[in-house]
Amino acid sequence: MSFFHWCMRYGAAILFVIAGLQLLIGIIVVLQTFGAMTGNSGFPGASDAGRMQVLLVLQGLMTVFTTAALPFFGALVVHRLDRRHRPDPREAEPFE
C-alpha cells in the first residue's frame, strides 16, 4: 500500500493524533511561558501585573484549545463521512 493510500485510509486517526499533539505541546508552551513570566515575583494574583499574567495565560490556553479543536473537528467529520459510506461489517451476509 502506498503512503498516499495509507494516509487516506487513516486520515481521521492522523488528524486526531495531530490534535492531541497540538493540545499537549500548546499547554506545555503556555505553562513554560507562565513560569518565565512569574519568576520569583510571588503569588500571581497579588497585584495588577499578576492579574494581567493570569489573563494572558487564560488567553493562551483558549488559543491552544481553539487550535487543537480544528483538526479534532476535521477528524470527526472524516470519521462520520467514512462510516456513512462504508457498510457495517456486522450486517454482512454470510457466505454460503
Please describe what this structure looks like.
This protein has helices at residues 3-9, 11-38, 48-85. It has 96 residues and is mostly helical. The chain has a domain at 26-83. Helix 2 runs antiparallel to helix 3. The longest helix has 38 residues, at 48-85. The mean pLDDT is 82.
Short note summarizing the structure:
This protein is an all-alpha fold and about 100 residues long. The protein has helices at about 5-10, 10-40, 50-85.
What is the N-to-C order of secondary-structure elements (H for helix, E for strand)?
HHH
Number of helices: 3
User: What is the rounded distance between the termini?
Assistant: 30 Å
Rg over CA atoms: 22 Å
The biggest sheet, with number of strands, parallel, antiparallel or mixed sense and barrel status, is: none
Task: Work out the strand percent.
Answer: under 5%
| Gross morphology | elongated
Average pLDDT level: 82
Low-confidence stretches: none
Oligomer: single chain
The assigned structural class equals mainly alpha
Q: What is the helical fraction, as a range of percent?
A: over 70%
Give me the count of strands. 0
